[in-house]
Amino acid sequence: MEIQSPQIVETEKRFGLSANALKLIAITAMLIDHTAAVFMNLADPQTVLMRGIGRITAPIMFYFLAEGYHKTRNVNKYTLRLALFAAISYVPFIYCMEGSFPNSHNYMRLNVIFTLFLALLALRARNEIKNPVVQWLIICTLLFVSLTADWSYIAIIMVLMFDYFYGDYKKQAFGYCMLSLFYIAPQFLTVFQSIVYSHTVNWVYVRMLMLYIGMFIPVLLLKFYNGEKGKGGKAFSYLFYIFYPLHLLVLGWVKHGVVW
Question: In whole numbers, what is the pLDDT of the chain averaged over residues?
């Protein structure tokens, strides 16, 4: 009697970038961006490059916020985690960007985790509230609250768009590009007006416009998303939330010293 060897079932690994790999790219881009924002002048070409790279971070986080909403086992814990780290990051963000927390005149300058928190609330309103009037009333309120936050209202709209076209990357990519063009349109008009009315090129405005070209890089990166979480385990999920306030404190301390 011939003994057959047991079949070995291999798990097929998809080529591309995992969620954790993309988030690691986003974290690296964020560090490059904030380093340039704190220590460098926009007049320098390398600053434009570094800050342009920083435009990668937020859109990737917006995309995975929509992904996370559909894949999380407990959306309430997910919401609470965002609220907690948004609160933890409040002082470090203002300290890093303003220089002194108690003497700051911009207490309403809110960090990007707070923006993600508002976007998640908007997602929940869209998917969990059946009354359309109440649904859109809440979303509009969240859009208004986000006006003083990092990335402002466009963040919530992008997250809602990623959610609306969830599972269809081509439509997500098209929607994201259209929203990005809408977002940078005022900067383009500023450059155009400076040429028409003053007959000179204001290079500060041009550099700002060039900076936002980096917003289109995430479309290319997300194209290679393979749908897998990647290595790192559950602990990796907290990396962004921990790194965000921590790196702001370090950059703020190097730039401003201990000012309380």
Answer: 87
161-170 as b/e: b if 16+ CB within 10 A:
bbbebeeeee
Question: Which distant-in-sequence residues (6+ apart) come within 8 Å of 242 by Cβ?
Answer: none
How far apart are the C-alpha atoms of 60 and 128, rounded to whole Å?
24
What is the 8-class DSSP label of residue 13?
Answer: P
Structural contact between residues 177 and 219, judged by C-beta atoms closer than 8 angstroms: yes
Helix, strand, coil percentages for the chain (3-state, nearest 5) = 75, 0, 25
Q: From CA 115, how far away is CA 50, in angstroms rounded? A: 22
Phi, psi of 110, deg, nearest 5: -105, 145
pTM score of the predicted model: 0.88
Fill in the amino acid letter for 9.
V
User: Tens of pLDDT along 1-32?
Assistant: 344 444 433 344 556 899 999 999 999 999 99
